[in-house]
Amino acid sequence: MNESDIDNSLNDCQLMTIYSWLPVSLILSDFLISYIAYVFIYCPSSLMAIGECILKLLFFNISFIMMLWSFLQTVFTDPGEIPSEFWLNTNDVQRVQRARSEQAGNILLENIVYNRHLALVTTSDKGFIRFCDKCVLIKPDRAHHCSTCGYCVPKMDHHCPWTNNCISFTNYKFFILFLTYLNVFFIFFLSTSFAFLYHISKLITQELKNEQDFLHVVQVVGLANLIFLIIYITNSSITVVTIIFMFYHYNLTLNNMTTMEALRPPAFVSEDIQGYDLGKCENFEQVFGDNVLYWFVPLFTSYGDGVKFSTSPRNLLDQQQYWYS
Ligand SMILES: [Zn+2]
Ligand SMILES: [Zn+2]
């Protein structure tokens, strides 16, 4: 590889980094513009009592801080590493790669699992040990290889381009809280300023009826009010999507499922294991912990170590409606 090739690959790498952070920048810009629109355009322009204004700003600022905190925690929390006991040494890798067949390779992996006392309850679709040949490791239960991150992630839910991070065991609670506070923030923004939006829309309609040109409309309505109108429409569209997304993830949490598992149910080693569903309350606590006060705060309180998970026996769940039955 000559110098220009190295320069080109460096440029590609920098471009990819810029590209991957673009959605995060867009989200942060939307938050910032929404904040300015509400605090500096809506509040001073609407004729509300000072007490009402203070109360609105108090709630608005609290939901803004919680939303931003949860978002930054989701973005900057490391999705986690697979513990060293799951990694294969050079000798084992060569033996597995040289194995005559997939079955022979699997026997070698089974021996490694047995000798290292690795607690695994899931297998591949073929009933083999789940092995990642890119990371050369035995995949712990619920771990998956993320093609965007380029490595295996514990209890991987999905790779989220909007946070430029994998949503996994370490940040799933932060992600759900982010969706929750985002919806609280947007719904509050949209519902309390609806009358102001109506006033701006009426003004624009009136001016357009008089067949005035666009520049004249901007002059009469005011650039700030037009910015408010645009951010209001943007936030309304975002809220429709994020509300659906939030309910989807609460449903997954209450059923102790990841998005990956909803798309492709895991295969269990033993027929006696029905799944991870431990009941709604227990499932919720697996992600949010048992301290009610911490449920609302984006601090890590999930149970476990990210590689071993409680399972439910089949005979107890025979009467229950199960997600892959
Ligand atoms: Zn991997
Ligand atoms: Zn990822």
UniProtKB/TrEMBL annotation:
GO terms for cellular component: membrane. Its EC number is 2.3.1.225. It is found in: Membrane. Residues 129-263 form the Palmitoyltransferase DHHC domain. It is a multi-pass membrane protein. Pfam families: DHHC. The keyword Ribosomal protein does not apply. InterPro entries: Palmitoyltrfase_DHHC (IPR001594), PFA4/ZDH16/20/ERF2-like (IPR039859). GO terms for molecular function: protein-cysteine S-palmitoyltransferase activity. The chain crosses the membrane at residues 20-41, 53-72, 174-200, 220-248. Its main location: membrane. Keywords: Acyltransferase, Membrane, Transferase, Transmembrane, Transmembrane helix. The keyword Acyltransferase applies. It catalyses: L-cysteinyl-[protein] + hexadecanoyl-CoA = S-hexadecanoyl-L-cysteinyl-[protein] + CoA. Belongs to the DHHC palmitoyltransferase family. The DHHC domain is required for palmitoyltransferase activity. This is Palmitoyltransferase. It comes from Laodelphax striatellus (Small brown planthopper). The lineage of its organism: Eukaryota, Metazoa, Ecdysozoa, Arthropoda, Hexapoda.
